[in-house]
Amino acid sequence: MAAIVIVHGVGNQYLGKYTLHSSVAPALLDGVHLADGPPLKPDDVEVAFYGHWFRPPGTTSAKGEPAYAHRDVTDPFETELLLALWREANRLEPDRVPAPDPTGTGTARSKAAVPYSVQRALYALSRSSFLAGVADRFLIGVLKQVHRYLTDDVVRASVQREIADCVTSETRVLVGHSLGSVIAYEALCAHPEWPVTTLVTIGSPLGIPNLVFDRLRPAPRAGRGAWPGGVRRWHNLCDRRDVVALAKRLAPLFPDLTRTVDDVLVDNGWRAHALEHHLTAAETGTAIAEGLAGGAR
């Protein structure tokens, strides 16, 4: 039974829990070692894998995952999320990423404007160092996975069961990356009886207004999100260039009378959002080590 459970992010539908474990467990051990944390073994780390819920069934007439193009981004949620990433990329790198057009062609104000604004957003994001080399097909697939989790109750419940099946009486630290941070947060809110004492969110989109934050379960009240279950410590880490972690500070969004989110910036080099780069950081290792030292509730 593992003391640490990692919930991965989007885009892993063609991998599996053991495939991911082979890369993320050593990375986590490196980070904890750099932080002078306790000695750990790979078996102390479990991957809560949910990617298969987004893998197209082989029995359908479709040949695998669609080769998405800009014309496939028509849902208002997906369009608004794409434009939110564009605005953040421009804020972070105004010298590389052109700004959305304030006159309206860079927004989703009408159906006619959507295809053009999506094309412009994809082009602009391709110029950011954060998404350099990422194909439009992959980025659009990411938008659709986030959208599906937040709006499809069957998928949401199935993914949540995967997390619940991995948490045992030995689990002390839950680590959530990207969309996995949203999944981990909701799981802890739904299970305050779990023995998890520490939540570590990395590269988290939890603070994206309207699209993510306001769709959380339980729903925020008066602009304030619920504290996740019985967690004592919540560490939130992101690279300052991470477009997905649009709200770099989560503490103001999830206030608590006795606890607060510890927001920490890390430097992940050219892969600002990568899970392994986050896990090898001493700052992440420190957060996990503190969680392990906290013991049972």
Task: Give the strand line-up of the largest sheet.
Answer: 2-1-3-4-5-6
Q: So what's the overall shape?
A: globular
Low-confidence stretches: 60-64, 104-113
Residue-averaged pLDDT? 88
Which class best fits the helix and strand makeup? alpha/beta
Could you characterize what this model shows?
- There is one protein chain.
- By secondary structure, this protein is of the alpha/beta class.
- 36% of the residues lie in helices and 10% in strands.
- The protein has eight helices and six strands; from the N terminus they run βαβααααβαβββαα.
- The chain has a six-stranded parallel beta sheet, sandwiched between helices.
- α1 crosses α8 (282-293), α2 runs parallel beside α3 (113-126) and α5 packs across α6 (179-190).
- The radius of gyration is 19 Å and the shape is globular.
- Residues 60-64 and 104-113 have low confidence and may be disordered.
